[in-house]
Amino acid sequence: MGYAGKVRVICFDLVPNNIQNLLDSRIDFLIGQDAHTQGFQPVMLLFDRVFSGKSPETRYFYTDISIKNKYNVKFDDTLPAVFPRKNSAAEFFRQIL
């Protein structure tokens, strides 16, 4: 079709399969959404409200995003959180590089 090299692929979530596809150049960019905080913080805010009567300190709670490509993903200190506990990010990269 003639689109090779013209179409860019951007995906969400810094999970091992997406990172592998990023390193294999099947994905151009990954957007990390801080899924842990997005899942944990609302539950804790609700818990505080229901059990302590405490209202959130602010109306909005912003979380971080990170944009990764195959060149900078290897240097992310937060990546071990997305890998199974038995494998560290360093071990993952040793296996695939």
What does this structure look like?
The protein is an alpha+beta fold and 97 residues long. Helices cover 35% and strands 10% of the residues. The protein contains three helices and three strands; from the N terminus they run βαβαβα. A three-stranded mixed β-sheet has the order 1-2-3, with helices on one face. Strand 1, helix 1 (16-23) and strand 2 (29-32) form a beta-alpha-beta unit. The protein starts with 9 loop residues before the first strand and ends with a helix. 12% of the residues are buried. The model has no long low-confidence stretch (mean pLDDT 80).
Secondary-structure map:
Elements: E1 10-12, H1 16-23, E2 29-32, H2 35-52, E3 66-68, H3 89-96
Parallel strand pairs: 1-2
Antiparallel strand pairs: 2-3
Summarize the structure.
The chain has about 100 residues and is of the alpha+beta class. The chain has helices at about 15-25, 35-50, 90-95, and strands at about 10, 30, 65-70.
